[in-house]
Amino acid sequence: MALVVVVLAVAVHGFVSVPPARLPTSLNVAERIAPQSLLSLEEEIRLGRYGSVERQRRRGRVGEAFIVVDSALPPDEIWRNLVDVEGWTRLMRGVRSATVRERRRDGTLRAGFQITKLRLPANIILRAPQAGYVRFQLDNQCTNLAVDGLEGYWHVAPSPNADSLTRVCLAATVSACRIVPNAAIDYVASKALRRATAWLRAPDDDLAV
To answer: Is 129 left (phi over 0), alpha (psi -120 to 50) or beta?
Structure first.
């Protein structure tokens, strides 16, 4: 929300202990690929065991990351939650407010968020170019603190692991501004992806948020 602006800081060290496969160099390319094709064999094993897997990489002040979750929630329920942008405050820890500023005829939304206890402003453009996909990018017509650039997507589809599961992928590329210290980016990044997708998991999930 992808739509998720909690991903403002998804920039750094991964949780996967195995050497990760190369992250997609372009989210425009990645979003045309089924999320499971982006995973290594080790990551698929981890996903089957824990229900989610993450990968992150930071190059200077630019971070790339994604998380894949196999959720017990039905896909239509997940989709309704994702497109209900103003409801993200109930779903995602760290999103303090969410307001849709403009709804265009083609379905594009311009939305404003306040993030973390500091209520940092973040402004996002969201599009759903096809069923199961929501693309998001920074709205440069508005003032945004902490980041110079943000783009990514959510993808929702049946899981290949079980008919009763829904596979959800959240991917993002973030460019942090110079006023944000790397240590702060690293700290937030260690929690951002799991917080953004915690609502997809069972309460007793091994990967606590």
So the answer is: alpha
Fold of 5-200: Alpha-D-Glucose-1,6-Bisphosphate; Chain A, domain 4 (3.30.530)
Measure the CA–CA gap between 142 and 122, rounded to whole angstroms: 8
Q: Between the CA of residue 182 and those of 111, 117, 147, 149, 162, what are the distances in Å?
A: 27, 19, 12, 16, 39
Task: Quote the CA–CA distance of 32 and 104 in Å, as a whole number.
Answer: 24
Q: Which residue in 197, 203, 185 sits closest to 35, CA to CA?
A: 197
Q: Are 11 and 63 in contact (CB under 8 A)?
A: yes
Contact by Cβ (8 Å): 172, 151: yes
Taking phi over 0 as left and psi of -120 to 50 as alpha, with beta for the rest, 55 belongs to: beta
- What is the rounded CA–CA span in Å between residue 120 and residue 155? 26
CA–CA dist 62, 55 (Å, integer): 14
The mean pLDDT values, 10 residues at a time, for the chain of 209 residues are 36 26 39 59 90 81 83 94 90 87 90 79 86 88 75 90 90 77 60 83 56
Q: What is the pTM of this model?
A: 0.76
